[in-house]
Amino acid sequence: MPILPLGIPTDLDKYFYNREKDIITIKSFLNTLNYGVANQMLVTGYRGVGKSFLLKKLLAELPDNILTAYIDMSKIFGIQKGKITEELIMNSLLEAMNESLREDMDDLTKSYDIVKDLIRKLQPSNTKRLGPQNSTNFGRQKKFDFKEAGTAMGIAIPDIKDNYEKLSKFVMEFPQRVVELSNGEISGFVIVIDEFQLIGELDSPEAFFWLFRSYTQEQDNVSYIFTGSTSASSDIVDKINGIKGAFGGRMTQYTVDPFTREESEGYLKEKVSELKFTESGLERFYKCTRGYPAYINSFCNTMSGDVEYDDELVIQTFYEKIEQVAIMWTAVWATLSGKEKDIITTLVENGPLSWSDLLAGVDFSNKTLAKYVNIIKNKGILSHSGKKYMIEDHMLLAWLGYKKERDGFYPP
Ligand SMILES: Nc1ncnc2c1ncn2[C@@H]1O[C@H](COP(=O)(O)OP(=O)(O)O)[C@@H](O)[C@H]1O
Ligand SMILES: [Mg+2]
Question: How far is the CA of 388 from the centre of ligand 1 (A)?
């Protein structure tokens, strides 16, 4: 049985396949940092298509004069058990940028120490120990005036309620300062914010995106890459880069696609040459996985090198092992709220539905439905086309259908 990674492997090179065009394209957008031009990017694509792996590989390939930082919002969410704040994101960003400095820049140890000290003072877990005096000090800090900045740009900016101005100012100015501090040694800072759609669960995602916009506006050597499993037409994409969104279309949008039929075949040959397929078996395998590396890997891990897979055996194995093939969704399912699950199962049960039919199928109000539909749209689970709402992912559909048929109910 092959053992392919179900997450991002530590040994990036051993498992990474192709993506040459994607890497060249994204690199070319980042390369302008060398000339003091910072592009901001938005990378979308379905869950399991390979965004995170691609970006991690890309960061690893960037030359030494470009520093990189990577944060995964879903990890922050996981640690916080679902309740996330702007401060936490800022802290994670700072830690990631700082880590990058520590790894790549021996002679910037001084700046590293300063940052370390700051993180220690700012961390929420330490505020208790430091006493209320600390938070009072924060309160006295002059607030960064988003409203003012917005007026200058001719756009209305929503209020930020939280008292995290000092921290955010420091974090947002930090990468550009590092470049300036390096005396030409460092040309740029690339910062990846993965599963960024989860920012949508802050009280004011707009304000948070505006924060980035207002700083990046004045920084010539810092490129942010926001990436997440959300469709390019989701509400959260609109908030960050729509006409009325913070970046107002100035971000370069890039979509990561699944492997093509040929790439899928090439991948199997290169990474799991022990598996044998007939031509029709291969065709069926591609239909089952649709070229999503996540499914290719989890499916391959259930297969054996001792038999040859034809069309029928692929189908049989797929249904026998669907729990394992669709493993990605078990983890996601566990993070969904009851209402999100209700909407999804209603759509699994009935197929694509119009708004009014969907509303009739769930027992909550129009307003509540609107709220949760938006949330699962942001998560790239629900899509909306031709006035119908439907489940985006065929594997999620197959898995839930199977669970219902086998157990008589959907997974709790
Ligand atoms: N180019 C690739 N080569 C090999 N495996 C890949 C590639 N891209 C993704 N994978 C694998 O597919 C799975 C999903 O990839 P991931 O980057 O986590 O997807 P996403 O971030 O889009 O949800 C992971 O197990 C990863 O190892
Ligand atoms: Mg990912």
Answer: 30
DSSP bridge pairs for 41: 225, 252
Do 335-407 and 19-255 have the same topology in CATH? Answer: no
Residue type, 202: L
Provide CB contacts within 8 A for 63, sequence distance 6+: none
Cβ atoms 329, 399 nearer than 8 A: yes
Topology (CATH level 3) of domain 261-325 = Helicase, Ruva Protein; domain 3 (1.10.8)
88 vs 138 pLDDT, higher one? 88
Residue nearest to atom 7 of ligand 1 (CA): 50
Tokens (6 digits) for 181: 């501090």
Residue spans of the domains in the chain: they are 19-255, 261-325, 335-407
Which one of the ligands is nearest to 293 CA? 1
Domain 335-407: top CATH class? mainly alpha
Q: In the CATH scheme, what is the homologous superfamily, with its name and number, of domain 19-255?
A: P-loop containing nucleotide triphosphate hydrolases (3.40.50.300)
Is the per-residue pLDDT at 160 higher than 60? no
Other CB atoms within a 10 A radius of the CB of residue 26 amount to 22
What tens digit of pLDDT does each residue of 77-106 get?
Answer: 877 766 788 888 988 898 888 778 777 655
Predicted confidence (pLDDT) per residue in 36-60, tens digit: 999 999 999 999 999 999 999 999 9
Here the contacts of 162-167 (C-beta below 8 Å, separation 24 or greater) are: 162/85, 162/86, 162/87, 163/135, 163/138, 163/139, 164/86, 164/87, 164/90, 165/138, 165/141, 166/122, 166/138, 166/141, 167/87, 167/90, 167/91, 167/94, 167/122
CA of 228 to the centre of ligand 2 (A): 6
